[in-house]
Design brief:
Blueprint: H1 2-11, H2 22-36, H3 42-62, H4 67-105
Length: 106
């Protein structure tokens, strides 16, 4: 996949990434990451879910919705919150156990 970017750079007469402007280098990095198959981290997923929750909350509180849209957004919000809670559960368990152990040490 990287050969595709290299072919494009060659066609443009670019022989080294150092010849690119900072903005072009950022685009190159983004494209390279995408073509290599960037792996999602827990933080990436968490940020995505938080953005989805925020989007639902904004729409539910600021946009005039018909009944169908209202039900859909509430269901989506509930599902996204459940997924977020599930993904956060190991961290929450760790915090609870840490507090329990620390209380025994006092």
């Amino acid at each position: 996949n990287m050969a595709l970017i290299d072919t494009l750079l060659s066609k443009l007469g670019v022989t080294s990434v150092d010849q690119l402007t900072p903005e072009e280098r950022e685009t190159y990095r983004t494209w390279s990451d995408a073509l290599r198959g960037r792996k999602l981290t827990d933080d990436d997923v968490s940020r995505f879910l938080e953005a989805q929750i925020e989007d639902c909350m904004v729409k539910l509180t600021t946009v005039k919705l018909n009944d169908r849209e209202d039900i859909f957004l509430k269901a989506k919000l509930d599902l996204v919150r459940q997924i977020k809670n599930f993904l956060d559960s190991p961290k929450i368990e760790q915090e609870v156990i840490t507090r329990q152990i620390e209380s025994q040490l006092q």
